[in-house]
Amino acid sequence: MPRPAIDPIRGATVLITGAARGMGELYARRAAREGARAIALWDVDEERASALAAELSTTGVDARAYGVDVSDLAAVRAAAARVVADLGAPRILINNAGIVRGAPFWEHDSERDTDLTMRINTLAPMWLTREVLPAMIADRSRPQRVLNIASAAGTLANPNMSVYAASKWALIGWSESVRLELARAGHRHIAVTTFCPSYISTGMFEGARGPLLTPIMTPEQATDAAWRGMVRGTPMVMRPWTVKLAMALRGVLPTRAWDAVAGRVFKVYSSMDHFVGRG
């Protein structure tokens, strides 16, 4: 899809969740470089987000930090209202915040692990998008964007990440459905992009091993691919190319045959065996 005639980033208010570090920080820096007027940095680590906001503000962008627990619906609603009051309605929304617990399902704590993962990875993007979407729909003067950070784990089952995979499968289905609903309703000035990367070296998946032909990406590589896709309005971005290959093979092979290929050939099923996470 070609780049839009009107740059959706320049002059826009950008809202990023999980913005204090890792890929969220890179999205914020990219937004500042490409001419965003204002950037709302949401993170539970308000101190770190504030330091980044102060640094970005020296470049001329109005960057502000908000300490937000996105697993709390009331907090999301209150913070969204504060952003609108402080910076104006966001035209670019990047649902980046996420957590992972790498363990067999029966070792997950229902409240601390399962509920929290679903709230942060799945419900929070739904809640926040619902808060900002009406203003996006009403403003047809410029192109607007929603970027949802999903995962290759949302396209294929993998041992030791059952709840994480479930959260990302749900996110992908919701994100794609919203994209179609907007297009069907004639709101084509809003493009929804779903990003499905394999492992990224942010520390979140420390210890995980990339499957065959699937190198672990740097955060810079991943954010660049997602950002370019978002600006162009690409519906779905998958990186690296083996994510699509695996989906295609899983679609055509019988389940047991795919299990053999994924487990013995591509080593997908053992990729989380040495996972330790961010710690």
From TrEMBL:
Tree of life domain = Bacteria
Gene3D superfamilies assigned to the protein according to its UniProt record, in alphabetical order = NAD(P)-binding Rossmann-like Domain
Q: Where is the signal peptide?
A: none
Query: What UniProt keywords are attached to this protein's entry?
Result: Oxidoreductase
**Record SUPFAM superfamilies:** NAD(P)-binding Rossmann-fold domains (SSF51735)
Return the InterPro entries for the record: NAD(P)-bd_dom_sf, Sc_DH/Rdtase_CS, SDR_fam
Protein family per UniProt = Belongs to the short-chain dehydrogenases/reductases (SDR) family.
The protein here is known as: SDR family NAD(P)-dependent oxidoreductase
